[in-house]
Amino acid sequence: MDCAPDACTLPTAERPLRIAEFDDLFRTAATAVTRIGPYVARWLLTPDPAVPARTADLVARESMCCSFFDFTLRVAQGSLTLDVAVPAEQAAVLDGLVDRARSVMTGR
After folding, report:
1. What is the pLDDT of residues 38-63, one digit of tens each?
2. Which of 1, 19, 89, 105 has the lowest CB atom count within 10 Å?
3. pTM listed for this prediction
4. What domains lie within the chain, and their CATH numbers?
């Protein structure tokens, strides 16, 4: 996630701020991340009432600049998950996001 793909329209100056927002989400709300397919990863998030709104806001803004992401936020049976899917040509971006999340989560 340190290197945005050409498809990203977020201004370069704003990218470090967006990365910091994802880092903060991973650090404070993510409890696990797993690959559920070559182009899909799932984050398990704490079911705190503030987390779904915070996550939805972040992924909505990310979708506006990186439209190739497919974010699915689910609240069901006391759990909260975020699935992130990408097309095959953006698999490296998903790899970077998963690696960054794992790094941030283990550095708590």
Report:
1. 999 999 999 999 999 999 999 998 98
2. 89
3. 0.87
4. 12-106 (3.30.1360)
